[in-house]
Amino acid sequence: MLKSFLYHNLIEAGCDEAGRGCLAGPVFAAAVILPKNYKHPVLNDSKKLTARQRAYLREEIISEALAWSVASVDSNEIDGMNILRASIKAMHLAIDGLKQKPQFLLIDGNRFYPYKNIRHETIIKGDGLYLSIAAASVLAKIFRDEYMEKIHSEYPDYGWDRNKGYGTLYHRKAILKYGITPYHRKSFSLYDMQLSIDF
After folding, report:
1. Backbone angles phi, psi at 10, to 5 degrees
2. pTM recorded for the entire structure
3. N or C: at which end does the chain have fewer Cβ atoms within 10 angstroms?
4. Closest-CA residue to 166 (of 18, 22, 17, 19)
5. Which one-letter DSSP state was computed for residue 34?
6. At what angle do helices 131-152 and 51-64 cross, to 10 degrees?
C-alpha cells in the first residue's frame, strides 16, 4: 500500500508527467490532491498498471480527489525550451489548474523549479511511493494516451495508437520512410536506429 501523505497537517498535491521520452506529441502532467484518509489497494505507478486498471482508476481519482488538473506542453515548446523545462512547465500549468490551493507539492523525479511560494519535495520513483503522485501519473498517462490515439487518425503511418509516440522500431522506421510530422520533436534523435526501444 502506498503512503497517503508526507505531512499530515498540510494540503499536499502530487505531481507527475507522462511522455517525457517520446519522439512525438506533447508532454502531459497532472496534479492531484487526495483526501488524507484516502486508500486504494490497486493505485500505483501508472507503468505498473494495465490499460483497464488505468481506465478504472481515472474515474476513481476524478470522483474521489479533492482537486485534480491535467495540462500539456506541445512539441514546438519542447524544442524551444528542452524537455526538462517543458515537463516542469506542464507540472506548473497543472498546479495552476487545481481548484484548491495546495500547501505542499510532492514531485515525482529529482528536478523541479519552485512554484510560487509553495514548498516542494522531489521524490525519485515517487509514483510508486505516494498515492497522490501515483494518481497524477495515472491521469497524465491516460490523458496523453488518448491524445496520441486522437492524432494517430491524422498520421496513421507512425503507429501512435500503439506506441504513443515512443521510439519503437516501427515508429523510427516510419520516420525514415515518411519523414516527420508537425507533432515530432525536432530536438530529439529521431533517425538514430541504435536508440530504438520497444514498448
Report:
1. -120, 150
2. 0.93
3. N
4. 22
5. -
6. 120
